[in-house]
Amino acid sequence: VEVHVCDSTNSNNSVPRHCYTYFFNRFIYCNGPILAAVNYHALYNDSKEFVDMPMKQDPLVVSNAWYAKFGNTTAANLNKTDVQAFVNEYFSAAGTELIACTPDDWQEKPPKLATIADPALREWAYKLNGIWKTLCRKIDPAIEQHTSRYSLLYVPNNFIVPGGRFREFYYWDAYWIIKVCKASRVSVFIKLFQGLIACEMYNTTKSMIRNLATMVDQHGFVPNGGRVYYLQRSQPPLLSAMVYELYEATNDKDFIAELLPTLLKELNFWNEKRTVKVNLNGKEFEVYQYKTPSNVPRPESYRVDTVNSAKLANGMDKQQFYQDLASAAESGWDFSTRWFSDYKSLTTIETTKVLPVDLNGLLCWNMDIMEYLYEQVGDTTNSQIFRNRRAVFRDTVQNVFYNRTDGTWYDFNLRTQSHNPRFYTSTAVPLFTNCYNTLNTGKSQKVFDYMSVSKMGDFNYPGGIPSSMSQESTEQWDFPNGWSPNNHMIIEGLRKSANPEMQDQIRKKKVLRPFYERKNTCDEWSHRTKVSKFSLGTDDGVNEFFFQGFLIASKWVMGNFRVFYETGHMWEKYNVIGSYPQPGSGGEYDVQDGFGWTNGAILDLLLTYNDRLFVPDNFINATTASPVQTTTKVALTQLQNSWVVLFAILIYQLF
Ligand SMILES: OC[C@H]1O[C@H](O[C@H]2O[C@H](CO)[C@@H](O)[C@H](O)[C@H]2O)[C@H](O)[C@@H](O)[C@@H]1O
Prior knowledge:
Strand content: 5-15%
Helix content: 40-55%
Distance between the termini: 67 Å
Bound molecules: the ligand OC[C@H]1O[C@H](O[C@H]2O[C@H](CO)[C@@H](O)[C@H](O)[C@H]2O)[C@H](O)[C@@H](O)[C@@H]1O
Largest sheet: 3 strands, antiparallel
Low-confidence stretches: 12-16, 181-199, 499-542, 622-655
Shape: globular
Number of strands: 13
């Protein structure tokens, strides 16, 4: 079986060592004796540390030096001190090729944030805005001369990183990072002064999108993240959604025209490399799946992958195991019981047998967005092509993933030829992406019923919605961890299906995608607010969705706020249960702070609900010791005399 290391050249498979030149760094960072020895001797707690270290000399020099010193001695027979000395001599500290920067369009007090009515939340939003400066990076231009000495993928523009061990760009994280840069829903009050509102970070957003476009141009797809060891896999496809969000804020048709060929190329990657045919009830459907060709340990998790592969039962295929691990990493959900055949243990992983509902919901959105963007630049032919494709594919999603009995969408397992009926937040993605007949209001009601009653116990977790209810796993994308992208997509899915203007437009214009017809977000907001005023508290399904979306938003926002108050940090994930919200845990690395998508999702929600999210009066500084040992407590002075409450009280401000 051919070995697929982490770049498409597979440069260490067949090329003799003395022939390696330019791409030889893949041999250092993706496979080979140095990587094996560093991990065997556990030089670093986190395997990612070594593969992020730049080489001080060209890879061939480093490799020759290794062989000159150690020959073909196996890792087990090497001395740890000697290996460490070699690394110290030939490698610099991780991340030193990245330079901190301040985004050129950053401002201390963006006017939009002034619309947040609650003073404590507004102050918090300003602090989060300040964090963008600590997460901004540019690549040392000098590395362009010596790219082979780095695992970093060169991109020309500044970008925002997630934070912590995630020193480079990440694909799907970028969608929530840039959310805040768009002019999101503002209140009717602000609409009057809209001309005075300074533009937000559109340059940074464009730069980040252009960086990702560079990746598509060079590699044919957007890699998982900005390192060579991510070059065999992507992440949930959201590039077109980023372009769409930016366009909605700027109306910049030139930018769409520039990006459309790249978006098309990216979609072709998913069509050509990530589709599979499935037969159901005598009909054949083509759907998408996460399936990287990589079948070696992930370099950034080399040690844990090799240790876990040693636990496989006799006869189990290690290369298949590695492929399923890397494919789960492509999903962004690394790891979750979603991918395990026994729904408990990593060693039963079978990602490549799972047809994921979220990926298919996102591709459905991609088609919808392509139709819209082509239409905006006057290309009616391509717009029509995507309208047709999306119509067909929406039916595919309903046929393959929708479960009529339970009233929701599930992953489909190719091995069992059935749905996985366990609860995962991925169930809400088709709702978020409008990948259903929006005239069918009963469908969104059923999804809501499914989430609220049957599985989620009335969304009753104080800090938001956990990724799953699987309590037999300690994986990071399982209970009790809640993640920003999931919570945000559920909230937005409910909010959008509650949009009265949307319902109105469906009735009036008989269009299926009214979401994109909305040009003036202020109108939407003012209309919704008025509707809320007059019909709040009715049992009208529309308002129920809006209410539930807001309720989850208030839990997620106040849970994050509480933890920020306790620790001074924003985290990549949160433990949403218990009376004290905490950063999340589990998985293969320590919980990271920063954190790009967390900040982006919170800022977006603070603006979406700017006039109705309030810190309750009895929110107080806990007198008991915080369960979180980490960092400085941030003083939010106006909050210091209240008791601990886990989530915000719902306060509707009636106009
Ligand atoms: O090193 C282990 C894994 O780390 C990343 O995954 C997690 O962090 C990413 C950045 O925030 C996020 O996009 C992903 O959803 C998280 O699970 C990385 O993306 C993985 O490929 C990697 O194996």
